[in-house]
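Methods: holo model generation. Sequences were used as deposited, without trimming of termini or removal of tags, and paired with ligand SMILES retrieved from the corresponding compound records. Each pair was processed once, and we did not select among multiple samples. The sequence and zinc ion SMILES for this entry were:
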Amino acid sequence: MEIFQGLIGNEDIKNTLGKAIAGREFLHAYIIEGAHGTGKHTVARLAACGINCQGHGCSSHSPCDMCRKILNDNCTDVRFFDAFKVDDIRKIKETLYESPTECDYKIYVLNNVEKMNVKAQNALLISLEEPPKNVVFFLLCTDATILLETIRSRAQILRTKPLTKEQIIAHLEKSGIPLPQGDKLEEIILSSRGSYGYVLDMLNESKADALLKDRERARELTAKLLLNDASTVTLLFSMYNQTRDRLKELFSLCLVALRDLAVVKRAKDAPLCFFTSHKEAGDLASRHSVQKILNIYAMVEGAIDALNLNANVPSTLASLLIQKKKGN
Ligand SMILES: [Zn+2]
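and the model returned the structure below.
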């Protein structure tokens, strides 16, 4: 279907949903499952266009008036909801049986449905069980298995996938966006974990610089954590005034770097998620055993868990130092 040209990658969804909409055989509820930034909103918005298009299947490049309205978030019948509570479900129910004002179908897009508690999910279920004919639900989530089976069984589950590096580069080139040279683009794409939206966001100069600095710090920290010398202690001490969230971000990057090191120990040319150069990862990995890398991984993971449980920054760093002194 032409309108899905606006979606990058995700060919399975384009086919499934495109065919269903073109044949006017779409269902009244879809669950769109996928990691953050993999295009769940775009799928729902483009499907809303396809369902309500008044231009006989226009494309996202030259939309009809109705598709343009939907793409610009100006259509009263296509509504997005977030952060679910029973009260929000009540609002949906209140409007559910009202006729659409400008479209053929009212579209309800519910974001973060995995955050709904059981009570809210049960309240939503009643709307899904007996929906009016002209309503389509799109339930967006990162993991559909968290939802009640009764909800999952009433919707078709579609999965958005992270984009490959090649897909992201191809699309950036097609869009004519000026690209940074050298490692910078590679570093941004690696940190995006397949999210095109993230890449676009990071192409902003100041954000890119902050990101590169963070990655440089994570590189340094990873290398120091693997060592057992005074410079490790100095570095950890220098981080005492970081906020808990900053430290969590930094440690999360270290986990990805450590994962790369463990992987290159087993296969030299395995795809990497943090390092842009196999040589750099290989050189660092060659200085440490797999067991050592896995021990440090477990230690950093433990530190993130502690921070998630509200441990303060100094005590988390102190505990890391004690564990390292014990021989990790
Ligand atoms: Zn249209």
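The mean pLDDT is 89.
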